[in-house]
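Quick check before the chapter quiz. The format below is the same one you will see on the exam, so make sure you can read both the input and the output lines.
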Amino acid sequence: MSPALAGGVLLIDGRWHGLGLGYLAIMMLCVAALGVCVFPRIPGKKVLVPFGGLLFVLAWVMAVALPWQFPVRDLPAPDGPHAVGIVDFELTDTSRQDPFCESNPCGDRRLQIRVWYPAQDNNLSPKPYATRAEIESSLAGLAGTMSLTADIFSHLNLIETHSVVGAPIVEEDNLPVVIFSHGLYSYLWQNTVLMEHLASHGYLVYALHHPYDAAAVRFDDGMEIRAWIPEQNPEQEALKALREKAYSESDLDARFDFFLSYIEKALSINDSKLLRSAPHWQKDQLFVLDSLLASKLPKKVKAIAEKGNYRSVAFAGMSFGGSTAMAACHQSEHCIAQINLDGADSHFGGVNKMAPAPLLHLYQDHHRQLQHKAPDLPVNKALMFNDFSIQAFERETRMPKSFQYIVSGSNHFGFTDSSVLLAGFAATLLSGEPDGERLLELQNDFVAAFLDQQMRNRKNGFPERQEAEWGSFVMKHKAEKVPLWWEGLPDRKKQAWLERLAEIQGKLKKYY
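Here is the expected output.
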């Protein structure tokens, strides 16, 4: 009865994954009962024995596979010299009404923020990866977007982080600051491994929950906001088709035409994510920075926040958050570095513009994804989906440094904690082929070294050391094809492109 005992322990701990072990125990009893008590009296027992064996095998598969796909294991430990603390707090932007709320008029825009910071050594217990309340709110919301039950994430309450709530902050001033945004329909702590790594190395990292575009946000007063997902319609499908063309065409003339057509289509149908979500994410990020600069903060976070240097910050994010972080960097005089973890352009403010600050861009293996979808599609591996959005087209324009890498074999969610929260088929499906811990180790190394160089002026060998160490995992990407293409265009063609682009950007201004 050890399977029953193991299954019971898992269920008592709150893990639905223990059902497999419980089912195994029941099947063992049933098979034994059928074999001993029933089969001798049934002429067709030779038919029933294999059936009982099949149930037995299926039970074993369930018993082993479910806990294996959703393991309870420690997060990778941060390797910096500091312990890590966290504090959650809320801010309200009274200058702006929430653009998504169903009430009329809408209320002020409320935000939930978590800060990770370098803490003094302590013996306090770390926070679980997700509390029961977070599973019932944010993770239930995430499960809902996938038509699943929140129980799929129940094991995350058993995983310990390395962050202590309210731990005393280190006695240092002018700590470098990162403002981070999650992916669309996700949750603010989706990159806990990276946040802890940076905090252990002396960074203050503020991560935002963007209401209505996060999986779910539950505020201190109990108010909960679930993700608002617009219904798909033929216009949305047409928009998606244009985007896929804009990211896959090998010919740059055709690619740029589809790219501009994609934005024009979004404008014509008033697409909610590109014209409502993206501008407000940018405004959320800038509002948080303004609040930090003015020290307009709740009392519980002031002692931590006063240690930061908000005159020179980095904007960062994953997926939709990475794109809007780049948009915020374009609008802030305080931005000295920007990080995009596999986010496609969703704001278009950087098309044919000089980048405002050095950029680190890590991409999933986009070409591999394209070839999986359409094996016969000719893929130009010299192009990536943001090449029009991170540089001025004229070659002679002086640009801040851009460091772009494709992580071989990776999928989109490999740039989140899912790389280590899942295992087996589930991990490969979401994160890709690389080992999850190695993938996050790579991400930590590139991000921390880039920030140390840009924000602390450290001569740390970035990026040459990383390229040498991770050469089998990463492919360096240079967006040099766009300036070469532009250089070869006749002046009349250039003028036509620029006039079309100017008209689009003029229409976008009213949203930003």
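If your answer matched, good. The chain has a mean pLDDT of 85.
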